[in-house]
Specification:
The protein is α+β, with helices and mostly antiparallel strands. About 45% of the residues lie in helices and about 30% in strands.
Length: about 70
């Protein structure tokens, strides 16, 4: 196993996920605000899940997205 390749591929995946996730959340919040479904002071429970079947990984992380 090449440690550098391994670490870089993990970082690349997590960076892409982080950027894409943030954009999707921002887009959803802007749409909900425009449609007046939310006021802009809410907090939303969120869950992120990482699954890699071949490695028997099923990891969940809970948190909150706060607008104010």
């Amino acid at each position: 196993m090449n440690e550098e390749t391994f670490n870089m591929s993990i970082r690349k995946l997590l960076k892409a996920f982080g950027i894409r996730s943030q954009l999707e959340i921002e887009k959803a919040v802007q749409k909900a605000l425009a449609e007046k479904r939310i006021s802009g002071s809410e907090s939303f429970p969120a869950q992120v899940q990482l699954r890699i079947a071949e490695l028997d990984i099923d990891f969940k992380l809970d948190g909150d997205i706060k607008l104010q």
